[in-house]
Amino acid sequence: MRRLAALALVPLASASCGGGSNGGASTAAAGPPEGRAAYVAKADAMCARFQGAHPELARSIESLQGLTMDSPNVYAKLAKHYDLVRTVAREFEQDFTSIAPPAADRERIDELNKVNEEALDLLDDAVPALRAGRNPESTFEQYIQKLNAANQLAAAYGFEVCARNTVGGG
Q1: Element containing residue 48 per DSSP (H, E)
Q2: CB neighbours (10 Å) of residue 94?
Q3: Most-buried pick from 2, 23, 90, 99 (CB within 10 A)?
């Protein structure tokens, strides 16, 4: 469970970044679509601001340091933390989707947003399980896989800040 706590904020980083297999070699040969650099800069700036704007997330992660499966109230503490992560990530997701990507990149950004949404949906399953005193280990494994996929899409698109899953020290 310590690893789960360390990865708690990853969706915040990946919520705002895009990429995918569309626009691969042919786009690279012709250069990026007009407006991509400005879009990447705006989104990366938003990611950087957002990461610093939620000290409650850092405090929550700190409160989980040293937590083990034998710790008192471990499930309740993890449920509270991941509920906070979920709430803040959903807020960020709304902010990010308000930024219009270049028209030529809409499919790539939609793909990233879909993968990130799938990761957040997994938290919707994990938090109630934690509240019920169950370890949703397989759900968290899927969650981490989705976050890694979103980060790969983001990096392939050209994001820097948004492509790093280090918001919470992951």
Answers
A1: helix 36-52
A2: 10
A3: 23
Q: Which residue in 139, 51, 150 sits closest to 110, CA to CA? A: 150
**Distance in angstroms (rounded) separating the CA atoms of residues 168 and 151:** 14
- Residue 1: is its pLDDT beyond 50? no
Identify whether the C-beta of residue 33 lies closer than 8 Å to the C-beta of residue 105.
yes
What stretch of H or E contains 63?
helix 55-63
- Which is more confidently placed, 69 or 20? 69
Res. 7 pLDDT band, cuts 50 70 90:
very low
Give 29-55 pLDDT, tens digit per residue: 556 778 999 999 999 999 888 878 889
d(CA 156, CA 154): 5
* Per-position DSSP letters for 92-145, written without gaps between them: HHHHHHTSPPPGGGHHHHHHHHHHHHHHHHHHHHHHHHHHTT---HHHHHHHHH
- Angstrom CA distances, 106 to 8, 82, 125, 147, stand at 28, 30, 29, 20
The pTM of the whole model exceeds 0.85: no
Q: Which residue has the higher pLDDT, 145 or 2?
A: 145
